[in-house]
Structure formats: C-alpha cells, structure tokens
Amino acid sequence: MIFALARSGRAALSASAVAAYIGAAYWFTSSTGFANPAVTIGRIFSDTFAGIAPGSAPGFIAAQILGAALGLALIVALYRRSAADAADNAVVPRAASSHH
Fold first, then answer.
1. Which element (helix H / strand E) includes 29?
2. Where are the transmembrane segments (predicted)?
3. Which of 23, 39, 90, 98 would staple 6 via disulfide (CB 3.0–4.6 Å)?
4. What confidence tens digit (pLDDT) does each residue in 27-59 have?
C-alpha cells in the first residue's frame, strides 16, 4: 500500500492508509491483525479478546515471516524498476526541528 501510494504521488496519505488498514484488521478479522512478532509475543500475556494461547504463537510468527517474505517479493515484482524511487518517496520528511 505504501509503495503504491508513493508511486502514484500520494505518499502523504501513507500514514492514514496504514492506520485505517490496521484498525480494520484489528476490528474485522479473527486474528485482530497480528503483523508484528513482538506484538504476538506480548499478546500471549493478554486476557482480552485479542490475546492468543502461547501454543499458537509459533504459528502466528511463522505466518508473519512468510507474509513479510511474500510482501517483499510482491514489491520487487510490481516495482522492479522503481522500487528505490518509490521507497525514497514513501518516506515523508519531517520538518526541521528548532530544538537543540
């Protein structure tokens, strides 16, 4: 999503688009959007509807690593010629800080 927005000149929408995606994944999928192995480990200790059983963590983490690899392969396949340019455009520069 971020690369597509950067490539189409709408990189400034990346933060909102990612936030909307994560919010929708949390509320509208059974996995509540587990995408980060550190969060998966943390949710082992949660007693909420988003918590997971400790025995399920290895499967979630394996799926996250596989998903990251497939996502990277998809980015390379779709943006072969412009991946570096899209990556540069995906980073929205911060305003210069006056703090010292």
1. none
2. 12-29, 59-79
3. 90
4. 877 666 777 888 888 888 987 777 888 898 899
Which bin fits 3, alpha (ψ -120 to 50), beta or left (φ > 0)?
alpha
Sign of CA dihedral 20, 21, 26, 28: positive
pLDDT at 70: 94
Q: Measure the CA–CA gap between 66 and 48, rounded to whole angstroms.
A: 26
pLDDT tier, 85 (very low <50, low <70, confident <90, very high otherwise): low
First to last CA, the chain: 35
Contact 50, 43 (CB under 8 A): yes
- The dihedral built from the CA positions of residue 20, 66, 84 and 88, taken in this order, carries a sign that is positive
If one compares 84 and 14, the residue with the highest pLDDT of the two is 14
